[in-house]
């Protein structure tokens, strides 16, 4: 470039600088003037709002004064009337009581000679007498004109008082009452002038202050509240400025402000703004103009320089495109830690944004191949280099991001890899996206965006692990279900096969009475086994589902032990095992509160297992030891010992699992399902007890269970009815409701054999109709199935109970249902039934229950 060109260029630059400075100065001055006008308008609007609020406040205070004086006048007139009827009440004590009752500050009673006769004040005004002395000349004529009343709000020592004077009706004189008004507050509220303006917020950092008699009553600036205007340089400076509805600069200790002064009623209003409210906006405007002017100059100079450089136009276009792209990608800096712009045709890159830890290692621009080599060689772990090198090559990018292979939605692809940073390995992701295409539809320029996805990868890995864990758990559950079905299938089919076989054998030899008797007995044994298995499985299901419904009723330990012995003794005798079940003789054993059924179930399972796995001619012993009382509970230790086959150490780790049995073929040899100990453990824990054991192969087993029961000292066991159990239902009229033909036939045969007369009903609706059509007292008892068409047993029971006949609410109704869970029993009782019998029906339990319900003794 020759010297003339340089001189011309230098002159142009100087002229542009001078013109730019002049333009900026002009814009600044104009912006300041315009801003002063805007802020003045804002100040005027604020002042108008303050004037309106002050006017509203004055109206409120006037209304409050009128209301307060009217109330005080009314109270004084009523007091005058009261004293006329009770002249002896003119004393200090009574007046002080009235001051407290009426919530006043003071009351004075003055005689016709204007001398004080009695007075009452609140504690802080006890020695005050200003009311009667101050007002003496104003109210003296009320003595001569009793119809007159004096009421006004006066100021004394800076405080405001509502005062009222009325004539006495008991004697010549006056009654004066006064009440001190809270300073600046509306009576009965917490509202004052400042609270009415609490929601007023000024723009651009402005503040306001309201003064009365030179004292600040309210301000948005906490530092100005309760000050005197003369004591504050800011407010005093504003007060000296002209009151011409314009902002004026005011100098103060800490600088200058723009102030605005006005008036409203008895108030002086001050509004002021910091200097920044004027100059900051002007500076911004000047800055914008400066930037715009600078950009204009740059464009101008770029256009002029194009003649000096042949490819200046191309470079300028590239710079504009790059600037536009950079502006769009700045928002991505929070997601991507590094951004490169890659020109595939020239195989070069430019850095748009670079992570701080890469600034010393990566240049702002250079060869794309060198950039790849740097990253792959020093930052990417070896196992990811080959794949990343391939996917970041220009050939791969062109093949995958050409217009033929992309859509309006998908114009990018990404590759995940692991990089090292600060000695730690982190998952990263490089995303390649197209910026523009060449004439052949191939990507010309792309963006390479580097992103840290370590947390995302960890969450994904955790999610995958959780999915795998859930799959493993589901597989284990499925296997457990299959194993359960396999075991229960064997256990159910065994007694079913036995019962079916004996029935078929009896059918094949109808003439052999002895064989018939034997087949029936064995079939019943098989059915009892099947029933026991079903009960065990249902108990286990309820326990696993946390549905243990413990009872809380009277419990006699010896009764429980007797029932256990009655069931277990025949099994022990059949195997030649000596079974000893001891009684308890402490003073509490018959007066306990607990769940007898579940305690018996625990002991029945333990003793039953001891007999089942005991040696022939061996022994089983169940002992109970009283362990003492604590906090109203009695503790007992139940110890069940046998000399049977015992348990190995390995099996003891799993013996409480459902269906667990140590001996091979135990289901066939010992006729057990393996659910007993599982049920025992769950029940003991549900009752708050503990269980321990000692055992060894071939040396027997001892289980120890400790349970605590509440003591019912008020309980008295009545055994007068023991043994008074009927042996038949002769003469009883029974309504039998059952929808299943087989169950109807079985139940009818059972009841007829016991001597009852049976009337059939095949569903709940028919039962209601039959009962309603019968004469009162026809039926002694109703046996009701639960699950039936038209009306189920619960609905039928409710329908019978609401019938308008004398026996509808008293006839015993008993459920006979295969649903035997605790909630089923409770639902039956809630519907109005008297008892619940589970199928198959046990006659030994049926007859005592009927005797108790209807007083029938056969």
Q: How would you explain this protein's 3D organization?
A:
Helix 20 (764-773) runs parallel beside helix 21. The protein is of the alpha+beta class and 858 residues long. The chain contains 23 helices and 28 strands. The model is unreliable at 664-673 and 716-725 (pLDDT under 50). The strands form five sheets. Strands 17, 18, 19, 20, 21, 22 and 23 form a seven-stranded mixed beta sheet that branches. The longest helix is centred in the N-terminal third of the chain and has 83 residues, at 3-85.
Per-chain topology:
Blueprint: H1 3-85, H2 92-102, E1 106-111, E2 116-121, H3 130-134, H4 136-139, E3 149-156, E4 159-167, E5 173-180, H5 193-196, E6 207-212, E7 215-219, H6 233-240, E8 248-252, E9 255-264, E10 267-274, H7 276-305, H8 312-329, E11 338-343, E12 348-353, E13 365-367, H9 368-378, H10 382-391, H11 394-401, E14 412-421, E15 424-437, E16 443-452, H12 454-508, H13 513-544, E17 553-555, H14 557-575, E18 578-581, E19 592-594, H15 596-612, E20 619-630, E21 633-642, H16 649-652, H17 666-670, H18 676-686, E22 690-695, E23 701-711, E24 733-737, H19 741-753, E25 757-761, H20 764-773, E26 781-784, H21 793-801, E27 813-817, H22 822-830, E28 835-838, H23 843-854
Parallel strand pairs: 18-20, 24-25, 24-26, 26-27, 27-28
Antiparallel strand pairs: 1-2, 1-5, 3-4, 4-5, 6-7, 6-10, 8-9, 9-10, 11-12, 11-16, 12-13, 14-15, 15-16, 17-19, 19-23, 20-21, 21-23, 22-23
Helix pairs in contact: 1-7, 12-13, 13-18, 14-15, 15-18, 20-21
